[in-house]
C-alpha cells in the first residue's frame, strides 16, 4: 500500500492552508464544492482522519462518514431540485483517483443529463460560491 502523503490538496484544505467553497463541517468531516464539477452542485465529503482512500481507511471512520454523505446528498438534491444524486468514490490512479486523501463525490443528477468529464473544466469562483450557498441553505432548512 502506498503511504499517505499529507501534502495532498485536501489535507491542505483541512489544515486551512488553502481556501475552499465550504458547505459543511463537523467533528469528523468537511464538505466543499468540487472546483471541476461533473454537474451543477458537485461537492466532496472529506473525513478529517487521514487515509489515502477507502482501502486504508479505519472502518470506524467509514461508519461515521456515511451518515454525513447521506446528509449532504439529501441537501444537494434539495438545493438543486435534482431528480437523483450520484455518489462516487475512487481508489488509486487506475480507478481515476487524483487526490490521495479519502473523499466521496456527491453529484446532483437531472433526467437525461450526462455527467461532465471527471476533472474537466474549472468552474467560475462566483458560481461555486453561489452553489455552496444553496447547499448551506438546504442544510439549514431541514
Ligand atoms: P478524485 O479523482 O476522486 O481523486 O477526485 C478529486 C476531485 O477533486 C476532482 O473531482 C477535482 O475536480 C477535485 N479537486 C481538485 N482540487 C480541488 C480543490 N482545490 N478544491 C476542490 N476540489 C478539487
Residue fraction in strands: 15-25%
CATH class: Alpha Beta
How many domains in all?
1
The H-and-E topology, N to C, reads as HEEEHEEH
Alpha carbon gap, first and last residue: 41 Å
Q: Write down the Rg.
A: 14 Å
Strand order of the largest sheet: 1-2-3-5-4
Question: How much helicity do the residues have?
Answer: 25-40%
Bound molecules: adenosine monophosphate
CATH architecture: 2-Layer Sandwich
Main sheet summary: 5 strands, antiparallel
CATH topology, by name, is: HIT family, subunit A
| Mean pLDDT score | 96
The stretches of 5 or more residues where confidence is low (pLDDT under 50) are none
- Total strand segments: 5
Class by SSE composition: alpha+beta
Number of helices: 3
Identify the CATH homologous superfamily: HIT-like
Identify the overall geometry.
Answer: globular
GO molecular function: methyltransferase activity
EC number: 2.1.1.-
Enzyme class: transferase
Protein name: HIT family protein
Q: Could you characterize the architecture of this molecule?
A:
Residues 9-116 form the HIT domain. It is an enzyme of class 2 (transferase). One of its GO terms (biological process) is methylation. The chain has 142 residues and is α+β, with helices and mostly antiparallel strands. It has a single domain (9-111, 118-140), classed as 2-Layer Sandwich (HIT family, subunit A). The chain has 3 helices and 5 strands. It has a 5-stranded antiparallel beta sheet. α2 packs across α3 (125-140). The radius of gyration is 14 Å and the shape is globular. It starts with 8 loop residues before the first helix and ends with a helix. The structure holds adenosine monophosphate (AMP). The site of adenosine monophosphate has 13 residues, from loops. Adenosine monophosphate is lined by residues 9, 20, 32, 34-36, 44, 90, 96-99, 119.
Amino acid at each position: 500500500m502506498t503511504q499517505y502523503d499529507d501534502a495532498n490538496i485536501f489535507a491542505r484544505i483541512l489544515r486551512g492552508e488553502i481556501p475552499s467553497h465550504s458547505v459543511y463541517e463537523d467533528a469528523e468531516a468537511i464538505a466543499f464544492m468540487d472546483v471541476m464539477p461533473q454537474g451543477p452542485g458537485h461537492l466532496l465529503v472529506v473525513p478529517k482522519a487521514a487515509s489515502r482512500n477507502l482501502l486504508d481507511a479505519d472502518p470506524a471512520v467509514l461508519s461515521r462518514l456515511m451518515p454525513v454523505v447521506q446528509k449532504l446528498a439529501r441537501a444537494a438534491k434539495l438545493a438543486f431540485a435534482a431528480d437523483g444524486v450520484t455518489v462516487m468514490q475512487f481508489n488509486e490512479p487506475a480507478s481515476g483517483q487524483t487526490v490521495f486523501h479519502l473523499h466521496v463525490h456527491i453529484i446532483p443528477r437531472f433526467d437525461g443529463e450526462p455527467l461532465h468529464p471527471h476533472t474537466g473544466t474549472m468552474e467560475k469562483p462566483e458560481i461555486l460560491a453561489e452553489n455552496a450557498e444553496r447547499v448551506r441553505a438546504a442544510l439549514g432548512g431541514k
